[in-house]
Design goal:
Blueprint: E1 6-8, H1 25-31, E2 36-39, E3 43-45, E4 60-64, E5 69-73, H2 75-82, H3 89-94, H4 99-233
Antiparallel strand pairs: 1-3, 2-5, 4-5
């Protein structure tokens, strides 16, 4: 007895399927080759039919676990689906799939294409946003660097200006001190000259006074000598 296969039953979708997206089916199949697709839809048991040869054997495998049901599409099944195209009428005529199953497959392919297109758009938007963000950050960084350089230049200019002002003040103070020192030196020299002149004058006067005193003493001594000389002769 052949074992029954459990497949997800999708709700009917009457939306129009465009044949222009058929070129993207092979690309989508290669993307999702040998990937695990978590199935969130409820599973319903159906009777096996002739078109289930696409799902039996090594074509389609269902693995069940406690949290969810994972569906694995094998490479042989993907290669077989690569031959399928919603716009290929010859495949539709030679296919054993019922119309409802083909519509479900068309709807599945459309969803895959829409998701792929949406993902591509999101990637493109993300790339554009990343480029725009990088540009904004680069401009902000340049602005900050420019502001920093301007601030640094202002500080250097202010510091140099203050340094020149302090240097000017120090030079003025030094010149003032030098002038004061010269004035004090001149005054000290004048005082020293005055003291020297005073000492010289005092020395001259003292020598003159001593000479006069000596002459007076000498004269007095001669007088006493002359007075005492007759007494000695007597």
């Amino acid at each position: 007895m052949k074992q029954r296969t459990t497949v997800p039953i999708l709700s009917a979708n009457k939306s129009y399927i465009s044949s222009s997206s058929s070129n993207d089916y092979a690309y989508v199949n290669r993307i999702y080759l040998n990937r695990v697709f978590p199935t969130r839809l409820p599973l319903k048991r159906v009777e096996p039919e002739s078109w289930q040869r696409f799902l039996n054997g090594n074509k389609f495998t269902i693995k069940e676990n406690k949290p969810n049901n994972n569906t694995i599409l094998n490479e042989n099944y993907i290669n077989l689906l690569n031959e399928y195209s919603p716009g290929n009428e010859n495949f539709r005529k030679s296919s054993f799939l019922p119309t409802s199953v083909q519509e479900h497959l068309d709807h599945l392919y459309k969803q895959m294409n829409d998701l792929t297109l949406e993902l591509s758009n999101q990637q493109c938007e993300h790339k554009q946003l990343e480029i725009k963000t990088r540009k904004i950050l680069s401009n902000q960084l340049q602005d900050r660097e420019k502001e920093l350089q301007e601030c640094l230049q202002r500080h250097l200019f202010d510091h140099e200006k203050k340094l020149k002002e302090q240097e000017k003040k120090y030079i003025e103070l030094l010149n003032k001190q030098q002038m004061q020192n010269v004035q004090r030196e001149r005054e000290s020299k004048n005082k020293l000259d005055f003291i020297r002149n005073t000492c010289h004058t005092y020395k001259i006067n003292l020598d003159k006074e001593n000479a006069e005193k000596y002459q007076i003493k000498l004269a007095n001594s001669k007088k006493r000598t002359r007075k005492n000389k007759p007494k000695i002769q007597n």
